[in-house]
Amino acid sequence: MENPLLLLPQLSISASKDKAYYKVMKVATKEEPHKASKTGAKQKRNRLSLLLQKPEFHEGDHLGKPGNLTKPSSVSPEEAEKWGESFDKLLSEKAGLDAFTKFLKTEFSEENIEFWIACEDYKNSKSAHELLPKAKTIFETFIQKDAPKEVNLDFHTREATSQSMEQPVRSTFDAAQSAVCRLMEQDSYPRFLRSAAYRGLLKGRAAGRGPPRRRSRSFGGSDFQAVRPGLAGW
């Protein structure tokens, strides 16, 4: 019969291994919710990235690919001068949209123009059955609390948009889009016109001609389709 005293070291080693195992499991369990949260946010960012990269998302003469922006040398001074006439004129031209997007990236506020573009695409969906998945992606990416690219909306606009998510229609994001557009027009657009990048595009303008004349106005929900026709579905 074995001496009980000889078994004590083995029992001690086994107990130590069990203790270490449960300690590792406890840490792993605590980390799981955090990992799941990070995974969810990453998936949302990936969906948005895929959305902005799809070729059909940038069809026509009105949209360019963010990240592949127009170089100053490809824009004539006359074309750039027109962008100073009004904000809708800037957004209605591919090169203008690209240049403005590049400017917003330098201010770390590109989520505003990305939201505007997503709303334009949403309203021009080819069929009604596309609205729900698109609306969900836009809402989760730009509007819900702590969204990866949350835009600045007042409480009432955010609440009204949230309620309309129960049964999305083509006008679901009109109020939010209009609010973000006004914010860009009143805040970012004037800074864009004063920026060194924009002034550089205006060089070469005929001598004696004054600075570009602005015709400022705010967009309404119905204005966007007239300005940016022809967007394809996601």
From TrEMBL:
Region feature Disordered, mapped onto this chain: 56-78, 204-234
Keyword RNA-binding: no
Annotated signal peptide: none
Keyword line: Signal transduction inhibitor
All residue ranges annotated as the RGS domain in the record: 86-202
InterPro entries: RGS, RGS_sf, RGS_subdom1/3, RGS_subdomain_2
The keyword Endoplasmic reticulum appears for this protein: no
Matches recorded under Pfam families: RGS
GO biological process, one term: negative regulation of signal transduction
Protein name, as recorded: RGS18 protein
